[in-house]
């Protein structure tokens, strides 16, 4: 297999909780806990889990929008943590993000044309105003909008159209990796399908690599080649999308899948129901983080020993004492 485009190794991100006038740290939120994975150029990896499981923080650490506490991220073989100045600017060009809330992520005082053109100007990708206009129109066309939309403001668009502007903004700099951070979660189901289809078409046309972050397994199913399931800061299962949906191994994945409607009657799934809330990441449970909600846990093993990710087949990894 060729050198991965992205390699994440033992990534950790803790957020300090401070108090008092001196701002002393009195606790930590353990948002990302030793996450490792690789991505090949041109593939889509779905990163799935409940809200607060650390998936968005993982995406932001990769882009260096926030600094990881420890661990390494390599992009095209270069350590992202060691980049500074011009190299970091180039990295920002190669790695883009599409946010969940297109309304909040678009400046309400800028027209769609100005929003999309901003990155072209910052990265000096156009020589003059004529070229800028032409490129903006081309990008609008690529995402299914027209030149007439250029002079409109974000509030004049629907949610789906706003997300198309967010996509056009990301495309403007011809990135290699795009982190889609809950990019369709705020949209209606029918609009979600349109935006996912658009992202799939763009990938086919331009060869983009997507890290597709979502809280719903059904959303990532059709676009992802592989899927990683996160729970309380850790990856608990990683497999090809086909394997994960047909043969899930981790009880948490089974519970997430139980919530997804099955169109194929030949696919039988145990109706595992997820009980309770995800524990507080300030005080994650000992051993397997999932043991407080797991329907098949065995104590004291599951509450004392951390299960490591173990290879269970071709590209299928699981972190569970009983299934690994
Ligand atoms: Fe459940 Fe134990 Fe497996 Fe964790 S290690 S998922 S608690 S059986």
Shape: globular
Query: What oligomerization state is this entry in?
Result: single chain
Placed side by side, the strands forming the largest sheet appear as: 6-7-8-3-9-10-12-11
- How widely separated are the two ends? 25 Å
Number of contiguous helices: 10
Count the beta strands.
12
Report the major sheet: 8 strands, mixed
Strand content: 15-25%
Mean pLDDT: 92
* Uncertain regions spanning at least 5 consecutive residues: none
Structure class: alpha/beta
Order of helices and strands: EEEHEEHEHHHEHEHEEHHHEE
What ligand molecules are bound, each kind once?
Answer: iron/sulfur cluster
Q: What is the helix fraction of residues, given as a range?
A: 25-40%
Radius of gyration from the alpha-carbon trace, in angstroms: 21 Å
Explain this structure:
- The chain has 324 residues and is α/β, with parallel strands linked by helices.
- It contains ten helices and twelve strands.
- The chain has helices at 55-62, 85-94, 112-122, 129-142, 159-171, 189-206, 217-221, 241-246, 251-258, 301-304, and strands spanning 6-19, 24-39, 44-48, 70-75, 78-79, 95-98, 177-181, 209-214, 226-231, 234-240, 310-313, 316-318.
- The strands form two sheets. The protein has an eight-stranded mixed beta sheet, with helices on both faces.
- The longest helix is centred in the middle third of the chain and has 18 residues, at 189-206.
- Bound molecules: iron/sulfur cluster.
- Residues 250-251, 288, 290-291, 294, 296-297, 302, 307, 320-322 line the site of iron/sulfur cluster (SF4).
């Amino acid at each position: 297999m060729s050198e991965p485009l992205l390699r994440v190794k033992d990534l950790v991100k803790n957020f300090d909780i401070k108090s008092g006038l001196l701002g002393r740290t009195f606790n930590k939120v353990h948002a990302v806990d030793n996450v490792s994975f690789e991505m090949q150029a041109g593939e889509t990896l779905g990163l799935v889990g409940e809200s607060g499981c650390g998936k968005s923080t993982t995406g932001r650490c990769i882009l260096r929008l926030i600094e990881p506490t420890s661990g390494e991220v390599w992009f095209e073989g270069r350590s992202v943590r060691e980049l500074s100045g011009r190299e970091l600017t180039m990295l920002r060009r190669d790695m883009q993000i599409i946010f969940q809330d297109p309304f909040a992520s678009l400046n309400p005082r800028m027209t769609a044309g100005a929003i999309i053109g901003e990155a072209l100007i910052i990265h000096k990708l156009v020589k003059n105003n004529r070229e800028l206009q032409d490129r903006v129109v081309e990008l609008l066309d690529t995402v299914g909008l027209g030149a007439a939309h250029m002079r409109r403001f974000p509030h004049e668009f629907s949610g789906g159209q706003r997300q198309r502007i967010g996509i056009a903004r990301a495309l403007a700099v011809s990135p290699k990796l795009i982190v889609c951070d809950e990019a369709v979660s705020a949209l209606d189901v029918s609009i979600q399908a349109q935006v996912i289809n658009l992202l799939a078409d763009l990938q086919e046309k331009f060869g983009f690599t997507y890290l597709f972050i979502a809280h719903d397994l059904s959303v990532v199913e059709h676009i992802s080649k592989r899927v990683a399931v996160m729970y309380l800061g850790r990856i608990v299962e990683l497999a090809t999308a086909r394997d994960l949906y047909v043969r899930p191994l981790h009880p948490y994945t089974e519970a997430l899948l139980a919530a997804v409607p099955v169109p194929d009657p030949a696919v039988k799934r145990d109706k595992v129901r997820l009980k309770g809330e995800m524990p507080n990441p300030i005080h994650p449970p000992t051993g397997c983080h999932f043991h407080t909600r797991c329907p098949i846990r065995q104590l004291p093993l599951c509450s004392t020993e951390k299960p490591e990710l173990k290879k269970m087949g071709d590209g299928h990894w699981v972190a569970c004492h009983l299934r690994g």
